[in-house]
Input
Amino acid sequence: MNNGWHELPLVFFTVLSQCVVGTFIILVYGWFSNNNSLVRKKILTRMFILWIMMSVAFAASTFHLGSPFRALNALNRIGYSALSNEIAAGSAFFGIAGLWWLTSWINILPLKLAKFFSLVAVISGLLFLYLITKVYSSVPTIPTWNNVFTPLSFYMTSLIVSPVLGAMLLQSSGVELKKNILHIFMVLVVFLSLMITLLQWHDLSLISTTLHRGSEILPEFPWLVGLKYSFIIFGVYLCIFFISIRVSPNPAWLFLSCIMVFFGEIVGRFIFYSLHFTVGLV
Output
């Protein structure tokens, strides 16, 4: 478990970044598809929360580098280094999406141009998500990461947390949610995430080197997985229940559901980093 504790800055950076990108896409869809200018303004106002989260994510990543000034050095090999590509893509998403948000919030762009700009921001976010996974899944010397489960688990983080956070922000903006579709989607992604985790557990037993077996790297794997899904399932249940009731729910309950699924994914990412080992070495 030591690797997980040592990489806490990256735990928060990756989870927060993936949550922000996914929620941004949901909010852009809500903004894009709504003709009420007042509702669009409310969506943009609540979107400021995402930029706070993204700022925290980047701040956390600098702790991993040791100094914020080393972030510039990490950009030296764009196009050749997965880490440089990730940082560049993250900075591009933050800049493009933030600029779109600001120009839309102060209403200085024509609506058609603002909608086009929002699609560019969404594409930059999807590229950022992809390049985060490449940092880890493309390292052949770490067999517990160099597999299909790394990108799948990373994408699942966005798919699980973002609908919960997005639902809270959209509902508070006055957007009518498509509740049946949202319920089915939330339950489905949690089920898929659980299946991916179980398959990963099986895959760990097949990984071995001269010194290690994958299943022995993290003996706490079963109970940590149980803790992760306890948080996630309870959080998703709260969200589904409170957006289904006829009266407007207390925002505190939806906020609690967001916190629950977020910490569930934090536990999951802690598991991921704790599974690190290099071929042939401790």
